[in-house]
Amino acid sequence: MAEREYAYFSGCSLEGTASEYDASVRAVLKELNVRFREPDDWSCCGSTPAHTVDHVFAAALAARNLRLIEKIGLDTVIAPCPACMTAFKKAQHSMTESEIFKNKVNELLDEPYNCGVESKSALQVLFEDVGLDAIAERVTHALPGLKVAPYYGCILNRPPEIAKFDDPENPISMDKVLMAAGVEVTNFAFKLECCGAAFGVAKREMVNQLTYKVLSMALDSGANCIAVACPLCQQNLDLRQEQVNKTMGSNLNIPILYFTQILGLVYGLPPREIGIDKLVVSADDIVYSRITVEEMRKRAELEAQAKAKKPEKKIAKEEVKTEENE
Amino acid sequence: MRVGVFICHCGSNIAGTIDVAKVAEETKKLPGVVYSTTYMYTCSEPGQEEIQKAIKTENLDRVVVAACSPRMHELTFRRTVAKAGLNRYFFEQANIREHISWIGTDKELNTNKAIEAVRMAVEKVKLNKPLFSSSFKINKRVLVIGGGVAGMQAALDCADGGLEVLLVEKSPSVGGMMSRLDKTFPTIDCSICILGPKMVDVAQHEKIKLYAYSEIDEIKGYVGNYQVKIRKKATYVDWNKCTGCGACMEKCPSKNSYDHFNFGIAPTRAINIPFPQAIPKKAKIDPEYCRQFTKGKCGVCAKICPTKAIDYEMQDEIVTEDVGAIIVATGYSLIDMEKLPEYGGGRYPDVISGIQYERLLNASGPTSGHIVRPSDNAEPKTVVFVACAGSRDKSIGIPYCSNFCCMYIAKQAILTKDHIPDSQSYVFYMDIRSPGKGYDEFTRRAQEEYGVKYIRGRVSRIYPKGNKMVVRGADTLLGTQVEVEADLVVLGTAVISNADAGHMAEKLHISYDTFGFYVEGHPKLRPVETNTSGVFLAGACQGPKDIPASVGQGSAAASKVQALFSKDMLESDPAVAKVNINACVGCLKCVGTCPFQAIKEKELRDGRIVADVIETVCAGCGVCTSTCPCGAIQLQHFTDNQILAEVNAICLK
Known about the structure:
The complex is a heterodimer.
Chain A: E1 5-8, H1 11-15, H2 19-31, E2 35-37, H3 48-51, H4 55-71, E3 76-78, H5 82-97, H6 99-108, E4 118-120, H7 122-130, H8 132-137, E5 141-142, E6 147-150, H9 160-163, H10 173-180, E7 184-185, H11 199-202, H12 204-220, E8 225-228, H13 231-239, H14 241-248, E9 256-258, H15 259-266, H16 284-289, E10 291-292, H17 293-308, H18 312-325
Parallel strand pairs in A: 1-2, 1-3, 3-4, 6-7, 6-8, 8-9
Antiparallel strand pairs in A: 5-10
Helix pairs in contact in A: 2-15, 4-5, 4-6, 5-6, 7-10, 12-14
Chain B: E1 3-8, H1 12-15, H2 20-28, E2 33-39, H3 45-57, E3 62-67, H4 70-83, E4 91-95, H5 97-101, H6 107-125, E5 135-137, E6 141-145, H7 149-160, E7 164-168, E8 183-184, E9 189-190, H8 191-204, E10 208-211, E11 214-222, E12 225-232, H9 247-251, E13 271-272, E14 284-285, H10 291-294, H11 300-304, E15 317-323, E16 325-328, E17 333-334, E18 351-353, H12 354-361, E19 382-389, H13 405-419, E20 424-429, H14 439-448, E21 453-456, E22 459-465, E23 468-475, E24 480-486, E25 488-493, E26 495-496, H15 501-508, E27 535-537, H16 547-565, E28 569-571, E29 577-579, H17 589-593, E30 599-603, E31 609-613, H18 623-627, E32 633-635, H19 640-651
Parallel strand pairs in B: 1-2, 1-3, 3-4, 6-7, 6-16, 7-10, 16-27, 18-25, 19-20, 19-25, 20-21
Antiparallel strand pairs in B: 5-28, 8-9, 11-12, 12-15, 13-14, 17-26, 22-23, 23-24, 29-32, 30-31
Helix pairs in contact in B: 2-6, 3-4, 6-19, 7-8, 7-16, 12-13, 13-14
């Protein structure tokens, strides 16, 4: 990985409400020896407000940033926020597909963009470029008792022709990344369910209902924590959890961590450095449960010894069974 | 040379966007053309008489008709000129309908283009040579590929007509998809009860030779004279000794083999007889599960077999057979549920496919006809059916309708109520397609008499909640989202072509469409023929179809074979490649390039080696003519000179 260098585009959310996502992504990339540089003078990615009004304008906002990256000689950008990433991928897709569209966009820019930058989410870079082996190799700590429901949100892997990453209906990359890091994940059916997105302002009750569904399904799947990869998902699930409890009469208290924060914890990083203290629903219990891999191994050995003391007859029986069921 | 040109109006098909009178007038000016006229419908009887009359009165020796595609009427007009005494190859057809009038709207441009098309045809016809067919003997045996209901019907009809039939079936038993079904719509007849007698007839008919568990390796030859290599796959059981007692299956210790017959709804043994009514009722070993093969030791079946039929050393055997015609009835497959991840089939045990449900309903199925959920063997009280699971979905490359899912879903919903009276079924559908005889009444019965709740809308997601499966979808009539908590979900999975359909088509030299279904000779008028003479289609290999349609096509294909075999000799098409031995240098590049193995090397009396075309095998594709470095091999009726004359006619003004 050392020879390759990425561009890094934090975007507006990661400067504000999702600063812990920014901190944890940077920390984890550093731990995994992924080199990256930020372009100077970056601006709005062109997401929601722009693309609801004008596609060419939205693409131009995205392309301005991509041009800055192209100019500093980099060909891949890590955009941890899915909205930024989608805005970039969409602009790239439309501009490479149609020469006419490309010209329209470039007319709005001071310097024309030559379509030489590929955009990837932090998850995509970890899953495709860094690889599961390298992710597993760096693990120093374990989080016993933690059961994570991986929550992808709506646009990390969709629409398929633009995202070109993972399965659009049943994604597994985050599951695999967390499992590689030694974290237990649950079989979560609402990986892609709507979090309510930006409707929290206009239709709060509706968003509360949607969020409630996601949270309670995570509990039903046996999880005690949800991993996310999007600032908006995180906000709706974490910040609004109190609201959900009030609206729905529930008593939910489930920490919502960025998947990079979980990786930070198993890499032994200080909780403050990866912004655990920024979460609304406290993840302190998870932090306190953290032990080293060495301790974990000792625990497992003790458990195995305790098991070995059980009557031998039963074990013999089990062996016969497996033979039969083969 | 006296060329006559006949411009067809084709009603308004041609005359609507082409000034046919002007085309006739311009054509008259061409050198060699002595007569030019227009006619309303040239292909009609008076139209043809007009041509014959002109040949006599104007003393024509070449005829050009400017009309539709030669695929439509070339044969018609060749017959017309032949009846008037000309060689049938002294005729050319200019396609001014499909190529011009149907595709262009500008009348002036169309007219100019039509004039050019006619000029090309005139220049070519002037170089045409008289050609004569030769006749050859035919082998009156027929090969039927596929032993499903369509193939069996075709085989039985041919055999009853006195023809010798070879029936090759890929799986260990004949019966195909129909043998897996519990009941058939709309009569609720027991499927195996009506199919079983046919299967027995196939096995016992003295004119039918059955190759079960066999595949086609290679097909060579041409209509009337095919050589077919059949691979009899190793069953590891000597079928001459096997009595089908089933003792081996009972004792086999490998109990988790994938059951192809039951579509994996329950496991089977590594040595198995697919189902009780199997024909032939013989055992075979699946080596990927058999311990003798995977672990090198076991041998239980060999010990238990009362007739000592087990042979672990058995190898595939290749048999060569000669036949004169081939009926392709290779059937269909179903889309893998994992291609529809939003429904969770394959991940969630209680989401199953329609054909799997069929096996659960069936008395000879793995549950003896008791409907139970695969996850916990509980009886489901709420069953949801999802129609169009994959069908009519462009995003996964299946834009077509699978034809019979609406009907079997109605049937399965009715049967569910019969089996479990206190159950409730739901059907999510896009629209109900039930155009067959008695079909619409049947779906109405499901709703009105059996209380099946039909919800118009698509399902967006299926997910587990406790021990239920929640089916979430839209109700587009109410304009709302609905969620049904189901015990069992059945997906009406899309019909697709077999994975090896393309390979098979290439062996047969027939065409197949984007989806792997075989292409019929004409969508309306030649539904069981292919564009390769001697090869016919029956059943769902041509496109999704239900049992009556498959049986109908099976019979139709059989009658086509009998019509073909009613002659003792066939006439060959003289428009084939021909070698000019004076120009041939004997490089034999053409031998390697011919896709039909129609070119052999020949030694002349002076010892010189030249290429030689076997006239009856040559399909007239012309690949050899473009390969030949010295232009020695020429396709008759499409020689270099004839094609260049056409090119010149449009390039030189």
